[in-house]
Structures are given as C-alpha cells and as structure tokens.
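Is nicotinamide-adenine-dinucleotide placement plausible here? Inputs below.
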Amino acid sequence: MTRTYIVTGSASGIGAATAELLRERGEKVIGVDLRNADVEADLSTPEGRRDAADRAVELAGGSVDALIACAGISAPVPLTVSVNYFGVTEFLDRLAPVLARSSAPRAVVVSSMASLQPNSPELVQAMLDGDEAEARRIGQELADQGPQVGYLNYPSSKRALSRWVRRASISELYAGNGIPLNAVAPGTVLTAMTRELLATPEGVAMVDASVPMPLNGHSEPVVIARLLAWLAGEENTHLAGQTIYADGGADATLRGDDIWSAVQA
Ligand code: NAD
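Reply from A.M.:
I modeled the complex. Tokens:
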C-alpha cells in the first residue's frame, strides 16, 4: 500500500534525492523547505515549525506514515542550532501523535559524522535542555570569535541531535507509540552544502583530512536517501535510537575498533 512521507529539506541535496526516490517507488511525498516545496516554511522559528507541521498534515489528509528530517545548514552561526536541532526535534514532536495513528509509523533524522567532532558541551547541554534562547546566546558567543570557533555551532547541533534521538527513541511518545526513531550520519556528500568547500584541491584536502572515507570516497545524495528510505519503511521494526554512520568508514577510521570500553569503565 502507498505510504505517505513528510520530507524536510526536499528542495535540495539529500532531501531532494530522498523525495525523488520515494516518489519513484510510488510513495506519496510532502516536501517541506524554504522554497520550491509543497509546504514552504521556515523551520528555524517555533511558528515556522508549527505552521509547517500543521500544513503538511493537512496536505496529507490527516494521515502520515513517516517523517524524514533532512533540512539543515552548516553556517558558523547560531541559526544552525535553530534549524538543525530545534527545527528537527520540535517538528518531530509535533508530528509524532499524528504518526502514531499509522499502522507502521517511522521517523528518521539526518545527523552527521560531525557529531563526532569537537563541540561545545555547554551548547550541547542547552539544546538538550530545550532552551533555544540560551543555545542561541552561546552559539552567538562562539560566532563572535570568528568562523573557526563559530563552526562549533554545527558539530554541537549534530551531537545534540544524535543524543536527543537516543533519549526520545525510548520515550512514550516514540517507542510507546511504536515509532522507531533513528538518525543517519553521512560523511561527505556531494550537495550544495559542500560544493564550495570541494571546489579547490586545498578544500578537498582539508575535508578529507577531517572526514577520511576509505570506502568509496565522497557519496552522491541518493546513497543516503536509500538508507533513509529503509529506516522510514515498514521493514524497520526494532532499530531504536541509533545514529548510523553512512560515511565510507570515517567513524571507524577516527574512533577505531573499540568504542565500548568507555561504557564499561
Ligand atoms: P543542501 O543545502 O543541499 O540541502 C539542505 C536543504 O535544507 C535546502 O533545501 C535548504 O533550503 C533547507 N533548509 C535550510 N534551512 C531551512 C529552514 N530554516 N527551513 C526549511 N528548510 C531549510 O544540503 P544537504 O547536504 O542535502 O544537507 C541535508 C542534511 O544533511 C543536513 O542536515 C546536513 O547537515 C546533513 N549532512 C550533509 C552532509 C554533506 O556532506 N552534504 C554531511 C553530513 C550531514
């Protein structure tokens, strides 16, 4: 039977590839983005998130089977925290009760291998506390110190998002409603987000030094789309709270073979 998917960030990159793949498979997709989408909305504000969720459900005729949250930015400013963390978590929480009415509800978000990079623990905590004003204050303090420190807004947003996924996935709202909630963490994907960075050999060398991808190198967005589609599909019944690093081996290279000892200590 045809399933109905809400896909954010549907106008470009990973979100566009995901919407296209699902439509090719005969599924119904409601795209959400700033422009060129079924629902044009700004996920960086609380009103924009509420409005986007309500209009998407209306377009879906009140019935939604899966949510795939791809919208995100990597600018070295606090707006990144609003879009990447609150623009995902508040949007999902508002839609979870609607998803719960589906016979096979699913939710997936796009984190990043940047969730493993150095971040601001204070900023991560403010996000997990649900305090957007405080998170933006800390994010602005970082941005004021220049783009290199300001970049911490991005890995912090993705670390917080992957941690939120673990917490929320086992809550009443998600597990209690039979909704598997997980994240995909791409390595370097060839989209608008990375185009400028990868335009020079120096840029490529810098990216590859921080995101080593021994398996098949940089990926096309459809690679991530296929995994998102599986996680949001009916076959996925028991994956909960995971961040799946679809990163050509970057995680295994950077963290090595033992990521469990810290848990035992
Ligand atoms: P992209 O720039 O091609 O697409 C991002 C989309 O999000 C755009 O269409 C944009 O309009 C939309 N968006 C941005 N701000 C928004 C807002 N306030 N409200 C609504 N929509 C908004 O980038 P992409 O590479 O496809 O990124 C998709 C996701 O993948 C992001 O969450 C990003 O952090 C993550 N990611 C990307 C890479 C990569 O290498 N490209 C790697 C790891 C993670």
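Short version: The CA atoms of residues 139 and 257 lie 33 Å apart.
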